[in-house]
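One-letter codes give the sequence; the integers encode the fold. A sample entry reads:
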Amino acid sequence: MVTRAWSAHFTGSYNRVGATVDKVDAAHTLAVAAAPQTRQVVASGGLQVGGDLTGNVGLALYAAVKPVAGLPASAKVGDLAFATDGRKNGEGAGSGTGTPVFWDKTGAWIAFDSGAAVAA
């Protein structure tokens, strides 16, 4: 089962590359050809572009890593971010320990675990 968060992310990514199988296949072919075949793609620096990767290629998965108040005011549907003070289920107001979020079609950053707009 694909959660709402991942569904939005996949749909947004698919639409950004043209929303047709031909363009997705072409983009995949170009990406594979462009990536050094002797290197490994790894997430870095807390899933954002980081420092020295010792020969590996860094991959940024998050559009932002910021407190809830500092998250971008707009984004593309499916973009991912990390709210550093965002609350997970069961965390009280002002005591959030951070949560991944995604931008959805309602124009809000949505917490992965709750499916609701993220709060600090």
The beta strands are 41-43, 57-59, 65-66, 80-83, 99-103, 109-111. The radius of gyration is 16 Å. Residues 44-50 have pLDDT under 50 and may be disordered.
